[in-house]
Amino acid sequence: MPQEQYLHRSTMQTSEGPQVYKVGIYGWRKRCLYFFVLLLMILILVNLAMTIWILKVMNFTIDGMGNLRITEKGLKLEGDSEFLKPLYAKEIRSRPGNPLYFQSARNVTVNILNEKTKVLTRLVTGPQAVEAHSQKFEVKTLSGKLLFSADDNEVVVGAERLRVLGAEGTVFPKSIETPNVRADPFKELRLESPTRALVMEAPKGIEINAEAGSLKATCRTELRLESKDGEITLNSAKIKLPNLPQGSSSSAGSRQKIYELCVCPNGRLFLSQAGSSSTCQINTSVCL
């Protein structure tokens, strides 16, 4: 019985012909697939073109990017550059023969740190001032000669000459030590203490010299010339004391223009009208 059914089925398939079964995507599905494949290829080409354009604009090469080049000694940067965050470098220098510029909208700060990231030295250049924070500040010449030095204890000026060009001069709140104080040629030298005393001291001597002009010392109360172990010498062809007090004359005779210089026990000088003998004792009231 099964053999007869098999023969019957075979006879029916042979009489009807072979049947074909279609496998795949047809119709609108196939067209959508082709469209997506074409769109993907277009995106790939656009992406590739954009990548090539970016590489061209940014100047990407094997040695670096743009103005930045990677060399054996480090990084080489050409042109203007902007750093938005801190820059850490061992050495920064320009190309030979070209200057190096640092520019900032607010300030430029240079810090020197130790192993514990503690600031040892700081240089701040801001819109209002230039500040240097360190234990000692020095300025030297190319040969190594010290020109200026400052620390907590003292300020040293190593130049042969210190010139002050201010119209009001220089104010020293405390004492200064120098071997020579001199004005420029054809300029006046003025030493003044408006509210306190002016003291000049030297272990060997003080020399005040005005070769082409006069010397003037002015004070409000007292001008004292004191020599502890030596003497005071006034060496001049003319010595004038125009405002010395004059003693009263006891003689009613004719007044003459010859006076005698007298000295009181307290050192005060006064004039007394000269006579045949000394008249200083007669005018001792001036010494009171």
Task: Please name the defining characteristics of this protein.
288 residues, alpha+beta, 3-stranded antiparallel beta sheet, 2 helices, 16% strand
Number of strands: 11
- Tell me the overall shape: rod-shaped
| DSSP helix fraction | 10-25%
Rg: 51 Å
Total of helices:
2
Structural class: alpha+beta
Largest beta-sheet details: 3 strands, antiparallel
Transmembrane segments: 32-55
Main location: membrane
Subcellular location: Cell membrane, Sarcolemma; Cytoplasm, Cytoskeleton
Keywords: Cell membrane, Cytoplasm, Cytoskeleton, Disulfide bond, Glycoprotein, Membrane, Signal-anchor, Transmembrane, Transmembrane helix
Structure summary:
By secondary structure, the protein is α+β, with helices and mostly antiparallel strands. It contains two helices and eleven strands.
Notes on the protein architecture:
The chain is 16% helix and 16% strand. By secondary structure, the chain is of the alpha+beta class. Among the domains are: 109 residues; 35 residues, no CATH class. It has a three-stranded antiparallel β-sheet, with no helix packed on it. It has a three-stranded antiparallel β-sheet with strand order 4-5-6, with no helix packed on it. The longest helix is centred in the first third of the chain and has 30 residues. 2% of the residues are buried.
List the helices and strands and how they pair.
Blueprint (H helix, E strand, L loop, with lengths): L1 H15 L11 H30 L6 E2 L2 E3 L4 E3 L30 E6 L5 E7 L4 E4 L3 E4 L5 E5 L4 E3 L101 E5 L5 E5 L15
Antiparallel strand pairs: 1-2, 2-3, 4-5, 5-6, 7-8, 8-9, 10-11
Main location: membrane
Keywords: Cell membrane, Cytoplasm, Cytoskeleton, Disulfide bond, Glycoprotein, Membrane, Signal-anchor, Transmembrane, Transmembrane helix
Family: Belongs to the sarcoglycan beta/delta/gamma/zeta family.
